[in-house]
Amino acid sequence: MFSIAAHGHVNPSLDVIRELVARGHRVSYAIPASFADKVAQTGAEPVAYTSTLPTDEDPDAWGVELIDNIEPFLDDAISVLPQLSAAFEGDEPDLVIHDITSYPARVLAHRWGVPAVSLWPNLVPWEGYEEEVAGPAYAEMKASERGQAYYARFRGWLAEHGLGSVDPDDFVARPRRAAVLIPRALQPHADRVDESVYTFVGACQGDRAEQGRWAPPADAERVLLVSLGSAFTKQPAFYRRCVQAFGDLPGWHVVLQIGKHVDVSELGEIPGNVEVHHWVPQLSVLRQADAFITHAGAGGSQEGLATRTPMVAVPQAVDQFGNADMLVSLGVARRLDAQTATAGELREAVLALASDPEVAARLAEIGRQMDREGGTVQAADLIEAELR
Length: 388
What we know:
The protein is an alpha/beta fold. The chain is 43% helix and 13% strand. It is built from 14 helices and twelve strands. The strands form three sheets. It has a six-stranded parallel β-sheet with strand order 9-8-7-10-11-12, sandwiched between helices. The longest helix is centred in the N-terminal third of the chain and has 22 residues.
């Protein structure tokens, strides 16, 4: 298994890796050292490498333009490939599993002549995606001098490693085979997805016991979780509005996760019904929550669906906007702008969603659909089938 040092890419894979180890497979997991302990808890052997990618410690390093977001992955691949090639010399695997961001994994699978399966943690391209979405979004960047240099370097790197016939965009977005770790309900145009390549297995969450357990106070009638994930969390003004919206709201207990980049002192006076943490065991909280204010990352979105929790989506970046729109279209969420939403709007949205029986009914039906997708067991079965 190959991945990068990002919670949103590592966490979705962990239960699948744990299941493969339990079935008797020897699994090596290539990952930067900061995630080695988390990987080791699955029973896999961490294989540490040095990455050049920005981390959750410095999300601003990703820049603001499209080319700023994608160029670091190619830079990292060029730097990391020799490390991983050396790490596995003489101990080549029978099958490569990889996150969508791990370009060296596909190169190595080609070199070793073994199957590759992508663990895809977010929405996948559908037939027509390039014309409808990617083409317009990438047109200006591809026409720029910097964009042309990026694609020329990418094509040259692929050619150097025997993949000269592969288009860089296809290399990134069109894997040989993929287990999609989101529910089909979150996928736009799911009826146009090539399911000979992409198999939706849904949430692979496990019990997350290693993250700890959370219990509400005895007097909490309803619970609200507020979390913007692990990366785009530098939002003290938004957190202050959440405190204003829900502080001392009768019957409600609020769990507010603020991430690494905000100090509790920036939030002002904290009411007694609000507990503030830099990190919480999110799934444990959601299993007892009545509402969820989320950035609508793929992980948080599917955890909200799996726990049947109504959501207020405040997307921050990348795929979160599309996820937010999907949640709204499913009838289980409202979308607000984190920069402009007032305390009153936040409060009204949460109270309306949490009291709507139609929202509860839709969440229950989606949950039943997700249960049928198979999750971790289905993903492990797919990988074993590739071994055979």
